[in-house]
Design brief:
4 helices, about 120 residues, alpha+beta, five-stranded antiparallel beta sheet, about 20% strand
Length: about 120
């Protein structure tokens, strides 16, 4: 499994979150990123941030994911975490950060991109 930091449009990590990709999904993402224009500044930031901070992680004998110190510190991952499934990846959140973000999403009025979801129904 490959673990990397979450990235938003500013190329700054989502506070309190790491993205976890199964290797086949990570390889697809690497291929997509490798095709971005070399001279595009945002593409360069994305490559440096996502690819440069990614780490292949193993599990120990008790099934615990061994995260590098740099990534644990980045996401403030300590004792209590939340694992969220996101189709082709997982998000690993600091429990407190997840609670705050979830409340923000539920209470917020952020409708950015809403028009793109017009045909979605549940």
């Amino acid at each position: 499994m490959v673990v990397t930091v979450a990235v938003n449009e500013r190329c700054v990590g989502e506070n309190g979150c790491l993205w976890l990709y199964p290797m086949p999904e990570w390889e697809k993402l690497e291929q997509t990123i490798s095709k971005l224009p070399t001279l595009n500044k945002m593409a360069g930031k994305l490559r440096r941030f996502v690819i440069g901070n990614a780490s292949e992680c193993e599990m120990d004998g008790q099934g615990r994911l061994l995260l590098p110190e740099k990534l644990r510190t980045f996401a403030n991952v300590d004792k209590k975490i939340v694992l969220i499934g996101q189709l082709n990846k997982f998000e690993l959140w600091n429990e407190e950060a997840w609670g705050l973000k979830e409340t923000e999403w539920l209470d917020g009025d952020d409708n950015e991109g809403l028009e793109d979801l017009g045909s979605l129904s549940f």
